[in-house]
C-alpha cells in the first residue's frame, strides 16, 4: 500500500481527543489552579495530631512528628529586612527611665484685628483713660524698657505683615517659619535632634489657634523660659504674622489649673469704673479729665497706685451711694467672659476677681458671673453719700498678690496651679506670683513681663492655653 493511502489515518491519529481516562472530577486540577504538594508535609497540624491520636480504627496510626512551629535553636526564624523600622519609642512618649520630660508647648493664636490695635485700641468710653491710651510700641523697638535685661542684638527694621499675603489665619508657612525659628536656638548638650508636633485646636482648614510641642526645649543655659518669651525674634515673629506666641513648659499643672483670678477694669469689663464714675459728675466740668489723667499715669506705672487711687476717690466726694447701682447697666462685660467662667466652673476651677475698683460693683458683678471670690476697695459712705475716703487696705499690686496667695492657701491649691489675668501695672506682682500670668490686651510693659499674652476679642481664648480644643470649649460652655 502506498504512503498516500495511510495519510488520512495518520492525520486522524494525531488529533487530540479527550477520553474518559483523561477526564478529572477536579475543576481546580483541570485548570491548574491547584497543585498538590509533591511530597507530604513533614509536620502535621494540631488537627491531624489530635485525629490520629484519638483514632480507634485504622490500619496503622501515623507517626507523630514533633511540632516545629515555635522558633528554636534547631529551627531559627527567617528574618527578612523590609526596610521599615518599627519602634514603640517616640519623643512624645514617656521619657526613658531616669529622665524627666523636657517639652515646650507653644500656643499660637491669630489676632483677627490689626497687630497694634490690641495695644493702642480704645476700650474705655472715657477719653484719656488708661484703657484709652494711644500708646503703642515705638517703631524699630522690641517690647522692653531696660536694655540691660535684653539678651540679644538690637532689633532690625520692622517687617511687613505676612498674614495678609499667606492667609489671615495661621497658615502652613507660618507654622514652618516658627519651626525654623525654634530650631535656631541652641539645644541642651547631648540632646537628640529637635522634634515637634502640632495640633489645630479649632479649624483644620483655616486655624486660628495652633498648639506646637517641642522636644527637647532650648537649653536653659543659653536662655531661660522668661528670656525666651521676651526674645527679639519671638517678638518680631508675632509682628510679622499677627499672632500671639505663648510658651509654657509641658506639665500636668498646665493642663489642670485649679484657681484663676482676674482683674476687673479693662479685663472682666471693657471700662475703668472710676472713669465711669467721674463721667457721671457734671460739676466741676473738667473732673472726668482730671480723674482719667491720674488713672492713665497709674496704669502705666508712672504713679503709685495706692496714692493715685486715694487722690481720685477724693475727687468723688459728695456722690450719692446709689451711683454704684446706677452704673450696673452701663458695665460692658468683655466678650467671652461668661463662656470662660462657665467652662472653668464645669472643670471645677475656683475663680476670683481682685479689683482696684469698688467693692459694691465688684461683688455684684461676681455674683452675676458666678465668680467664687470678690475683693475690692470699700469706700466710706455717710448720710448716703461718698466721703471721698477709703476704708481698710487699698487693693493695689501688693494686695492683689497677697490675696492670690491667701485664696490658694484657703483652697489648698498649689501656686503652680494658679493663673492670674490682668492688663495694668498694678497687676504685675499678681501675674508674677501665679503659675501663669496672662496679659489681656495689656500695656507694653505688662505684655513684656507676663508669662503669656492674649490680644484677641474673646477672653475665652484663655482655655486654649490649657490645651483644650474649640470643640471641648463649646462643650464646656453648653
TrEMBL record:
Pathway: Amino-acid biosynthesis; L-serine biosynthesis; L-serine from 3-phospho-D-glycerate: step 3/3. One of its GO terms (biological process) is L-serine biosynthetic process. Its cofactor is Mg(2+). The keyword Hydrolase applies. The active site is at 263 (nucleophile), 265 (proton donor). The keyword Metal-binding applies. SUPFAM superfamilies: HAD-like. Its EC number is 3.1.3.3. Keywords: Amino-acid biosynthesis, Hydrolase, Magnesium, Metal-binding, Serine biosynthesis. One of its GO terms (molecular function) is L-phosphoserine phosphatase activity. Residues 20-29 have a biased composition (Low complexity). Residues 1-76, 116-141 are annotated as: Disordered. GO terms for cellular component: cytoplasm. It comes from the Eukaryota. Residues 9-19, 131-141 have a biased composition (Polar residues). Belongs to the HAD-like hydrolase superfamily. SerB family. This is phosphoserine phosphatase. The lineage of its organism: Eukaryota, Fungi, Dikarya, Ascomycota, Pezizomycotina.
